[in-house]
Structures are given as structure tokens and as C-alpha cells.
Amino acid sequence: MIDCSQSRASLLEVDGLTVDYRLKGLSLRAIDGVSFALRPGEAIALVGESGSGKTTTAMAIAGLLSPNAQVSDGQVHYRGERLLIDNDAAMRPHRWSETSVVFQGAMNALNPVHRIIKQIAEPCMLKLGMSRGEATARARELLELVGIPADRGAAYPHELSGGMRQRVMIAMALACRPSIIIGDEPTTALDVITQAQILKLLDELRARLNLALILITHDLSVVAETCDRVMIMYAGRIVEDGTVAEIFATPKHPYTRLLIDSIPNPANGKKMIRPIPGDPPNLINRPPGCAFHPRCPSAMGGCATEVPRLDKFGRGRVACHLYRSSQEDKVAAHA
Question: Strand, coil or helix: what is 222?
Fold first, then answer.
């Protein structure tokens, strides 16, 4: 459940969101009881290995789940209004106007046979009711805003570099003046220098336009200077949630610590990069109890049988039996 004191000031509230995929007669749970709140202008990162549920969580919020996905439980509220995220027609007015997405592969998301200026102008006409001339002027402004000369709007996607295509995707995401932008691993296909430029651009636009940002990534290192808060996901659940400073300085969950240990540090050539042992869990045969226990160096009695609750710990949240006794002590003290 989300913190009610936090939710009163929230732009977006996700409460107990659960999504299943139907595959060859099977029902596979992709995300299980995800809850969090997002405030105006806040940037949060969803971090975890492939298959942890990051993208499914974000696409569910935007109402963009694949046809074989089903919202089994939970609710999503935007500015206090419940979103019918499993109803495409009901979500259509909200997409791009309130929540927009910067997809991972710009070359796949952009139409190869239309000029850039037309693709940015189109949502302005459809969503904002602008004339073609007004929408074209708005598209030129957006190109300049993301660092692309307006005259490059005459180009086709294949005539732009990967970094410029990603900037175009950001311009399209901003076209209808949304309050929330979802970045679905927007820098994955880019070189390191271009990655830094795109992340810096997102951070500058967030501050300038008071945007809330949900950044999806498997790499903790990309969120250090971009996000305010980090949610670590594993096997469809949030296992730790805290500020960027807290997560990096004092990670609680063993999985979080292992993710941080796997980040190379150019400033410390002696640091050993420690890969996380084992493989992410198979959704068809999810481990009982804590899903991370087969890979966890701190696994103990109860980890293999009991699913840990995501409870408040300090100023964040953690789902780990290592902290169960202190959490129970606090409950007993208030009883």
C-alpha cells in the first residue's frame, strides 16, 4: 500500500498493481502488488535486471500493455482520478496529454517514410486541436528545445544519428505538454557520451518544465545524477525503495548491494566487479518465498518459504527478512 501522507501531494498513485501474461494456456505473473507515489516534478527510477517487471509496470501505467496482458489487481490514480488502465478507449485521452513515453528504440518507434517535423506536429493536431500551421510551429519550437536546429525537421529518421533520433522522441513526448514522462531505457542503444547528453537533457527539461519522470533502466549508474528516488525491482516486486543518496550510501537489500557492486568505477581501478551469481527467476517456475533467495548470499531460514513484506525502514522501504525483527519490534512498540 502507498503511504497516505505522501499520496495527498502525489501526481500519480500506483496501489497494489498486479499484471499477468497469458501464454500458451499459462498465466504468468509479471508484476505483483507494486505500489508507489510520484510527486510533481519528481524523478524516480525503476531498476532491475531484464524480466524484473520494470517495463510492464510502466506500460501498465500508460495503458499500453500487450493484448495478452491482464491487469489482475490494483489501481492507478492520476491527480486523484482513477485511470482505467485496462480500457484502451478510456486511456486514449490520457496518453501523451498527461503521460507520454520515450521508447527505447527510436528508429523502430519513428515512421521511416515521414519527415520528422510531420511526426512531431501530428499529436499536436490530434490532441490539442491545433491547425497544421500551429502544429508545425510548435514542432519547430520543440526541436529547438531538445537541441536540434528547426530546419532539421525536414529530415527523415534514417538521416539522423541515434542521439538525434532519441532527441526527436523526447520532443514528441513533450508535444502535448504532459505532466509525466516515462523513459523506457531511452539510452540503451547509444554510446556512453550520447547517453550522458540525453540524460542531461532529460534532467534539464524536467527542471525547466516541472515534469515528473519515471526512468526505466537496468543500470544503477545512469540514475545517480538524474533521479531523486530509486525503486529496485526483482521478480515483479519492489524489493527496495529510497532516495538516490540512501540507496548508494547504505543499500539495504542484498540484491541492491550486488547491483551496486557490479558497477565499474573508473576512479577506483582496484575495485573488483562482482557479477550477481545465478540467473533471474523463470516466471513459469517462480521460487517460493523470497524470489531472490536462490541467489542471495544472506539467505537464511524462512527466506525459501515466506515472501517478505515491503515495509517502511528508515526513510525508505525494504522487503527482506534481514530487517523483519526490527520491523516487528516497531509494530510491537506501537501496540
Answer: helix
How would you classify residue 180: left for phi > 0, otherwise alpha for psi between -120 and 50, otherwise beta?
beta
CA distance 48 to 232: 6
Among the residues of 213-304, which ranges form H helices?
Answer: 244-249, 254-261
pLDDT on residue 283: 85
Cell of 78: 492520476
Exposure string for 259-290, b = 16+ CB within 10 A, e = fewer = beeeeeeeeeeeeeeeebeeebbebeeeeebb
Spatial separation of the C-alpha atoms in residues 308 and 319, rounded to whole Å: 5
Q: CA nearest 163: which of 179, 178, 154, 152?
A: 152
Tell me the per-residue pLDDT of 143-193, one tens digit each, with 9 for 90 and over: 999 999 999 999 999 999 989 999 999 999 999 999 999 999 888 878 888
pTM over cut 0.85: yes
Q: Are 139 and 175 in contact (CB under 8 A)?
A: yes
C-alpha 187/C-alpha 219 separation (Å) is 10
Three-state secondary-structure class, residue 9? coil
Q: Label each residue of 54-115 as H, E or C.
A: HHHHHHHHCCCCCCCEEEEEEEEEECCEECCCCCHHHHCCCECCCEEEECCCHHHHCCCCCC
**At 140, is the secondary structure helix, strand, or coil?**
helix
Q: Is 40 helix (H, G, I), strand (E, B) or coil?
A: coil
Residue with cell 509525466: 180
